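Researcher: I'd like a structural prediction for the single chain below. Treat it as a standalone chain; there are no partners to consider.
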Amino acid sequence: MPKARVITWGNVQWRLSDLAREHRMLPQTLASRLNRGLTVERALATGLVTRSEAGIRSKLLQTATG
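Model: Treating it as a single chain, here is the predicted structure.
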């Protein structure tokens, strides 16, 4: 059985899975963001969007920049 990943956030030690669920995200999503180098604060603050919302945002950014 894999060892639980422990994260210190807000002066509290959390299991990654508990912290992710507390913030209504999948543990895999939080782990992936942390593995990419995001801080805990940024990883938790980054919103979750659907594929269609991401496409709309991308189109808006493209028209704004070019």
